User: Fold this.
Amino acid sequence: MSQENVDIVEAVLPNGDVDLVSLIRDDGVWAVASEAVAPFLHSDFEIVGTVIGTERAYLGVEGFREFMLDWLAPWDAFRSKVERTIDDGGERVVTIFRQSAHRGSSEVQATAAWVWTIEDGMVARVVGYADPAAALKAVGLEE
Amino acid sequence: MSENLDLVRSIYAAWERGDFSRADWAHPEIEIVTVGGPEPGTWKGLAGAADFTRNFLRAWSDIHLVADEYREVDGGQVVVVLLHYSGSGTTSGLDLTEVGSAHANVFHIRDGRVTKYIVYWEHERALADLGLEE
Assistant:
């Protein structure tokens, strides 16, 4: 079951070489991308982001885009490669990303992590963390 | 009081990485005030701070903040950051540099937490409010 969950997560994530800013901000590109992603999202899908310690849930496919627009707001190009994928043996999968963000001529390297919850063969919930250690702690997989 | 300066520098370091999730620097009853600019207003508490931050990030694309100078005031209990922004309005297309090139952020700190964060769109006004000179 865990490998199936990992496969679902990998189906939703774009290739790490893709500039997410172009993918998400451009209405036409997003229209195509959202059609590819939507079949993997549960009808109650939500993605949760934290700003100044305050969580907010974004709902549905368009909520997914809204979350990404907020996440990507500071950048004019952003690439995110999966560095590690860890399943908890149950319904949750953790992806740890290495991110390369560009703003003008400056580049920032950072890590982040998402915790995915899979239900009925679809992604029901994603929680984004700026700190991978916090994501692992959230699923009881502290290192 | 240099630990307060370190605190403010650590906030900017996180923001520079695009990490706006941290709240360990903010007092639970933090007050955020914007003075001047396109949307002056006041926000209170962590939830208010989150609303302010989300709205700010959404309003401006490719937003980039560059801290030019840090000054400690009032024995270090207040830290002033002189800075400039770049970016453009998400819907208006307005170039942030057209709003003014010299801004200031003022952090009031007590017991290691920011209790008040004031965003000045004109750094001259911040300096005047604090009785400081250029």
Notes: Chain A has a mean pLDDT of 93. Chain A touches chain B through 24 residues (CB under 8 Å). The beta strands of chain A are 41-51, 54-59, 77-87, 92-103, 106-119, 122-129. The two ends of chain A are 23 Å apart (CA to CA).
